[in-house]
Write a structure and sequence with these properties.
CATH topology: Alpha-Beta Plaits
CATH architecture: 2-Layer Sandwich
Helix content: 25-40%
Largest sheet: 4 strands, antiparallel
CATH superfamily: Transposase IS200-like
Number of strands: 6
Strand content: 25-35%
Strand order of the largest sheet: 4-5-3-6
Distance between the termini: 19 Å
CATH class: Alpha Beta
Structural class: alpha+beta
Order of helices and strands: EEEHEEHEH
């Protein structure tokens, strides 16, 4: 079922899917670092009044699915996520850096098979489906 997001000046469906990885591609987002990253990403999305935020951390990269209100440009969403991740990396004294490239796509009516195809084409690890 599609969700319709309403605010005082806009109506929209869907949201954003953001993926960021580290270079070199080592599994740095594990254990306490992953927990801290999830905490900081959650707080960053709350500061943007994001709705329906889902965060998936996969060792060398992370995904943020969320809907942000129209008053915020997509770059605001990107910068908030990257700032949170950079802070966690620096705080944990991890030498890996965020890749300059990232993937941002509209999350309207996403299907796991379509997301996985796009992830493979962008050299990311595919998501695992909750249903199978």
């Amino acid at each position: 079922m599609r969700k319709l997001y309403k605010s005082s000046h806009s109506v929209s469906m869907g949201g954003w899917h953001f993926i960021q990885r580290v270079v070199p591609r080592n599994n740095v987002f594990t254990g306490d670092v992953a927990a801290r990253l999830e905490l900081f990403l959650t707080e960053s999305m709350k500061s943007l009044e994001a709705e329906d935020t889902t965060i998936k951390i996969c060792g060398d990269h992370f995904h943020v699915f969320s809907h942000i209100r129209g008053r915020y440009a997509p770059i605001t969403f990107i910068n908030a996520a990257r700032l949170a991740a950079n802070y966690v990396l620096q705080e944990s004294e991890i030498k890996e850096k965020l890749d300059e490239e990232y993937l941002l796509t509209g999350a309207y009516d996403l299907d796991v098979s379509c997301v996985n195809r796009d992830l493979k084409n962008s050299c990311f690890t595919p998501l695992t489906s909750a249903s199978g």
